[in-house]
Amino acid sequence: MLGDGSSANSSGELAGGDEERELPLSETQEQSLTPAPELNSTPSSRFLQVELELNVHLRRLSFSEPVQYIYNPLEYAWDTHRCYVQRYCRGGQRVLFLGMNPGPFGMAQTGVPFGEIRSVVDWLRITGEVGHPENEHPKRRITGLACTQSEVSGARFWGFFKKLCGEPELFFQHCFVHNLCPLIFIAASGKNLTPPELPKDEREALLALCDIALCQAVEALGISMVIGVGKVAEQRARKALSAAGVNVKVEGIMHPSPRNPLANKGWEEVAEARLKELGVLSLLKNA
């Protein structure tokens, strides 16, 4: 067993990948939220405080087979993550793009959601030191900003917005990007395990905490629209925010993963059409 305890339980099944299935809510989510204490009044500080509190709760969780390794880039890559948040999390952002959890060659390496290395270093201009998880799989080493392997999803995601906006300041004037869950789960073989692949009780304990943190972050930033990147993130966000009584619109766009055949046929065109439909595209076009 990993970790030192467990905190929540519920019933129901969670969809995997981009399949359109209903996602359950745990009973924990139906409880009223306890506001996160603020470091100060800036949006970035409020956001970081929510994440720090989530880290404390996540450390109490326990995970069993098939999970053998757990990485939390909000701990070992906090330096680069904080750089990302302090630089780009600002007041007045209306739209939050929400992924599910980090990829092994994206946020796991850089501390930035969808954090493909070249996008993070060259376009977002993120700097800082990246350490290592306490227990590291030999096939999933963390090399930080020196990582030489590209994450396709992140390259597609940030590359698309680079084409639209030119400079990141235009994108972040209206939008921010976040992941529901900060943890990466790895099997003994080195396989990356997504939250839907975890044992049911452990998965729901995890996601119940992440749901609460999402609601706190949305309220702290004054977000008016959450756009789930992929069906899993969209469904989970919709139910979590609705159950908590957070008045925010929740929509979705196709996930750019190479495991999604539709994304491989032209993800940018699909994403652009969807953002136009949602009224977001006009905010991002580089005049």
Features:
alpha/beta, 4-stranded parallel sheet, 3-stranded antiparallel sheet, 287 residues
Description of the structure:
The protein is α/β, with parallel strands linked by helices and 287 residues long. It has helices at 43-58, 73-76, 78-88, 107-110, 117-123, 152-165, 168-174, 200-221, 231-243, 261-264, 267-277, 281-284, and strands at 2-3, 62-63, 69-71, 95-99, 175-179, 184-186, 192-193, 225-229, 249-253. A hairpin with a 5-residue loop joins strand 6 (184-186) and strand 7 (192-193). Helix 8 (200-221) packs across helix 9.
Compressed to H and E, one letter per element, the order equals EHEEHHEHHHHEEEHEHEHHH
Structural class: alpha/beta
Helix count, DSSP H or I runs of 4 or more residues: 12
Helix fraction by DSSP (H/I, runs of at least 4): 40-55%
Low-confidence stretches: 1-39
Mean pLDDT: 87
Instruction: State the total count of DSSP E strands.
Output: 9
Distance N to C terminus: 54 Å
Radius of gyration: 18 Å
Query: What is the spatial order of strands in the main beta sheet?
Result: 5-4-8-9
Shape: globular
Oligomeric category: single chain
Main sheet?
4 strands, parallel
* Fraction of residues in β-strands: 5-15%
